[in-house]
Write a structure and sequence with these properties.
Mean pLDDT: 96
Structural class: alpha/beta
Order of helices and strands: EHHEHEHEHHEEH
Helix content: 40-55%
Largest sheet: 6 strands, parallel
Shape: globular
CATH class: Alpha Beta
Number of helices: 7
Distance between the termini: 17 Å
Number of strands: 6
Length: 224
């Protein structure tokens, strides 16, 4: 049975779910947040130590401004209402990506990280304004600046995910089979599960089914 330390998720399909229901894309994003809460609770139950959620990519700035603003308002409301509860549950919150948002949201993100810094039950890594190509370039530039050798060890230690084990599992919902510039370095040996369901329809049973499949998967890492 393979142990599971780290699950990464591309939460795709919120907007399509909303329009499929005859409502707005923003309605889909709101419903998707309920799925986030379910998966956090299920991760705690399964004693998973790291959960990385792809919330907003560097490419997502191309979306309509009203949708971007709504996404950030959802995040603001979620953290304002839930961060103390997460802290009581001994859950750590960390942003991976570049915090280039408005002052209010940046302040809330920093507060959430500081409040939960010592928690160890589960670490939620929220990928915000995140792009893996930029992350790798930033790491290499930092290594060069410090006159260090460019090798796998030094690159890994200077990514946004330094001190975090690489994901054992990547889940992508929404019936799309691509990585979308997400954790390209870190996913080199992750088991990848593409899920047809749109994110708001993804549930605890679907999640646990994937976890059980992973536990039974033979992992060779290049060996026979």
């Amino acid at each position: 049975m393979n142990p599971i330390k780290h699950v990464a998720i591309i939460m795709d399909g919120n907007g399509r779910w909303g329009t499929n229901k005859g409502k707005s894309r923003n309605y889909g994003h709101k419903q998707g947040l309920k799925t986030v809460e379910k998966i956090i609770k299920e991760s705690v139950k399964n004693k998973i130590k790291y959960l990385t959620l792809y919330a907003f990519s560097t490419e997502n700035w191309k979306r309509p401004k009203n949708e971007i603003n709504y996404l950030f308002s959802l995040l603001d409301n979620f953290l304002s209402n839930k961060i103390r509860e997460l802290h009581q549950e001994k859950i750590k919150f960390l942003v991976i990506g570049k915090k280039r948002f408005n002052k209010k949201l940046n302040k809330l993100l920093n507060y959430s990280e500081k409040l939960t810094y010592k928690n160890k039950r589960l670490q939620i890594n929220l990928a915000l304004n995140y792009g893996s190509k930029s992350e790798i370039i930033d790491a290499i530039n930092f290594i060069k600046k410090k006159n260090l050798k460019i090798n796998e060890k030094n690159v890994s230690e200077n990514l946004y995910t330094k001190n975090i084990p690489d994901p054992d599992i990547l889940i992508r919902t929404g019936d799309r089979k691509r990585l979308s510039n997400f954790l390209l370095w870190q996913l080199a040996y992750s088991e990848i599960f593409f899920e047809k369901k749109l994110w708001p329809d993804f549930n605890e049973r679907d999640y646990n089914k994937i976890l059980e499949l992973f536990k039974k998967t033979k992992r060779n890492f290049g060996k026979i």
